[in-house]
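Here is a tokenized protein:
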Amino acid sequence: MALMLFLATLVMGGIGCELKDPQQKTSLSGHNGAFIHDDVEQVIIYMKPTLWHNLLSRAKEEEYKRADFWFDGELVPDVAVRAKGSSSLTYVVDDESDRLSLKVDFDLLYDALAFRGLKKLDFNNNYRDPTLMRERLGYEIFAQMGVPAPRATHVDLWVNDTHMGLYTQVEHIDETFLARNFKNGNGDLYKPNLSSSCLDWSGRDMERIKNMELKTNDRRTDHSALIRFLDVLNNEPAETFQEEIEKVLDVDEALRFLAVETMLVCLDSYQGRGVNYYLYETDGRFVMIPWDLNEAFGTYKCGLDKDDIINLYIDEPTCGPMAERPLVDRLLSCEPYREIYHGYLQQLLDGPFSVEAMDNRIDELADMIRPYVEQDEMKFHSTDEFEQNLTDDVGRYFGLKSFVAKRGESVKLQLAGELPRAGDGEGNGGDPDKA
């Protein structure tokens, strides 16, 4: 009732209906950060009901609508909001659910407007995750392993008087993310599209370059760094590969990235479907940035059965032939790199992905979000399924704690040579297009 009265006050006051003087806009970057890790903040997006209805009815078109944004009682007026997602957006719309993932752009309508130092925020609906925490846990593990990863926290989201429920708020990967994570934040940032994301390139098909979606420097780059990277990755002779690849790729960072992806069995990313990651060039060398982890912890299966997922080969951690994923194939074909990668897998087992560490973190997050899960009437799974999936399987979804224990034991045995680490070069089989 309090929220209804609050929103009624907003409507009567005309908030969201008037254009403000952009000179009166101020950056809120001096306030506390937007990522509150020990609490669940309330987020309210208010827009004219006709705009919200239009956004819902045309969600697949991902058109921005004007709105006002409230974060724990703090107002940012005149932001832009749209639906977001790929297959998850399609499935949610086709299921006639209003629980869309949303993107909020703070400076689309007014340049230089920011919220607590951020130009954009993503609000993800935790599709295909009964625990509502896989994405957040995944980013935390990447960060603990020294991989640049977006920050993620939980929020209780409302749109007008509709309680959308418990969402994961994720830092958008853009110039502000780059400035926070790299000494040089002015390089080329790419989000590979499906047709180019496997990074296999002969050197002749320039359409592959065009299909690497450039997010920065679109008016001044000549893509020379990307072309050089792909050429070395795919065409450099084995005898000079190590020397040349280290000139165009942060190999150590890439090995840490692959170790986490392999441990979490992230097949909705480079090693499976080939999507859901970013490439960032800084001073001529590329790094990999994780993205869209709601189907980590073995949820996206590539048509593999549960035993195949748990025992995914650590030295052939692909869905389909290794040759179709040259970044994995060529790096892990080099014994020195493979040994470093094994060391990172062991570091995960001893630290962030240990049963003790993960059980404690899962319990901590569950205790924090549980009241909001119970009040979330739009979530995709029941409260009972939330509780069960923290530990045990729910249908196709691995129990988080059981996955950690079983996957960790499999990787331990593979490292010790007691289970096979690789097959015949064909990866783990399956089909990247089968979820």
